[in-house]
Amino acid sequence: MFCVQTPIPVTVLTGFLGAGKTTLLKHMLKAEHGLRLAVIENEFSEAGIDSQLLGDEPVQVMTLANGCVCCSIHGDLTRALFLLLERLDAGEIAFDRLVIECTGLADPAPVAQTFFIDEELRERYILDGIITLVDAAHADVHLTQTIAQAQVGFADRLLLSKTDLVEPATVQALRERLARINGRAAMHVVEQGRIDLGALLDVRGFNLNPDLGANLKPTLRPVLKPATPDRIATLVLRTDKALDIDRLSDFMNGLLETHGTQLLRYKGVLNIAGEDRKLVFQGVLKLYGFDWDAEWAEAEPRESVMVFIADDLPEATIRAGFEALTAE
């Protein structure tokens, strides 16, 4: 009898050097949470989870006392992912969730794309969310680096660490700056690596779902633009006019062809002319997917919402294309 395997949810953990990724991972691996977690730690992390794991072998795997699995890699992520699957299928290890720690200087995009490009990995794993730690005490310095801004831009959740070392006004200013960079990511404070794992797991950040508008409403208040804008920024567009699906397709294809490498994350929940169902889509760079969702409720406003988070955001181009979509 053929058995369909449930894909393993994957959480990608990013953050600049010293933001507290390893401290968080230690907490996740040692806590008695009852979850069967596997963690992939790479060799460039600022402090290993367990230095005894780091040796000459390109991939090492160890089952810890609480049942969690720690995998240390010295090379290709894809190889480590397949190795874990081989040992899982052979009954040598057991886990039902995976956390991947990126290096402090790493771009999360290639890690995310790994789970879309390889067909077997796409069937066995499902990308649940990208979590980015932000060091509140050193954010001003870190965010001068484009890669640190990109880590924020890719995030589904932002974790603020070391908030106890700075004034509340500094934390609030940081929150506002992060909301300008990424208006769709919820923010949480993490203290010495301790946080409710419910804030990190089952994020469903890469699921096609229609909850975009609700998630964004709290962050759409007018804010003053900073004197020196960040390279990464969020653009949110809304309309209550029904969209023509052919014109929408032309708009998105043209945008991705010209600016696809700039679009870190994008998502839409759309009202399509002549269709009672919601159309939802989202993507990372040039990789995207879309599907029909539930019907609009009778009393529900049929509002289309599109969100773009981009490096050197081509705002004028996107706005012009969106206005053409909504024109009579």
From TrEMBL:
SUPFAM superfamilies: Hypothetical protein YjiA, C-terminal domain, P-loop containing nucleoside triphosphate hydrolases
The species this protein was found in: Pseudomonas parafulva
Role, per record: Zinc chaperone that directly transfers zinc cofactor to target proteins, thereby activating them. Zinc is transferred from the CXCC motif in the GTPase domain to the zinc binding site in target proteins in a process requiring GTP hydrolysis.
InterPro entries on file: CobW-likC_sf, CobW-like_C, CobW/HypB/UreG_nucleotide-bd, P-loop_NTPase, Zinc-reg_GTPase_activator
Family to which the UniProt record says this protein belongs: Belongs to the SIMIBI class G3E GTPase family. ZNG1 subfamily.
Transmembrane parts of this sequence: none
Annotated keywords: Chaperone, Hydrolase, Nucleotide-binding
Pfam families tied to this protein: cobW (PF02492), CobW_C (PF07683)
Gene3D superfamilies according to UniProt: CobW-like, C-terminal domain, P-loop containing nucleotide triphosphate hydrolases
Catalyzed chemical reaction(s): GTP + H2O = GDP + phosphate + H(+)
PANTHER family, alphabetized: COBW DOMAIN-CONTAINING PROTEIN, COBW-RELATED
Keyword Chaperone: yes
Domain CobW C-terminal, first and last residues per copy: 232-326
CDD domains: CobW-like
NCBIfam families reported in the protein's UniProt record: PRK11537.1
Protein name listed in UniProt: GTPase
